[in-house]
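User: I would dearly like some help making sense of a protein record. This is the protein in question:
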Amino acid sequence: MIAEIEILKLFILVMVRFSGLIVTAPVLSSNNFPVLGKIGLIGMAAYVVTPTLPALSAPLPADPIPFALVGAGELLIGMAIGLVMQMVFAAIQIAGQVLDMQSGFGLVNVFNPALETQVPLFGFLFFILAVLYLLTTFGHHLMIGSLVSTFERIPVGGFAPETPLMGQVAAWGGLMFHDAVLMAAPVAGAMMLAYVTMGIMGRAVPQLNLFVIGFPLTIAASLLVAALSIGYYLELLDQMFIGMFRQVDRLIGGLG
């Protein structure tokens, strides 16, 4: 009977760790993913992983408050991994904001049902591109596999974050802006050339109404350059996702 209770407590804590990932990770936390599907995924993952875990060095707390504190640590492990993964998609949204302001789409926003918020037009395009690329390369499997690997390095109840970890996460936040600049570079460079060209035309032919000519020109140029840069974006997304999983691996090492 005691062994069954210990297994039940272990199963609950494994579910809590998976829950932290599901509610924060990109794609998996999407509102388009049904709640019952998320609950089923969490339960199935915990059901598969729990029997494979080695015996704990110390029994789990029996009192509610210490057990809840252990559960809070498990939840933070999953949430921290999911939030680091979200940095890639945050970089995509930043790049979209920059390109919308440069190309003339600054006043146009679309509703993103996955984020339940208004997002820039280019940001939505890049978001869809990133999600499709992640799914076609089985990145969602790698997300779940990353969390499964945490049980080998951070046993249940072993949440003990290192002090320098927050500084490392902050540095990754700086890399998020670096990735956003790289993503925005092709269209932003084309827009700079377009504005310089229109400026020269305005000086040479003052009769031209650049306000009327400029919007169609910049919009057409931005869409054309974005279409021609799809291969570049896919290669960049590949590098960003590889870097994301490297960051997750370092994060796991600092959490236990």
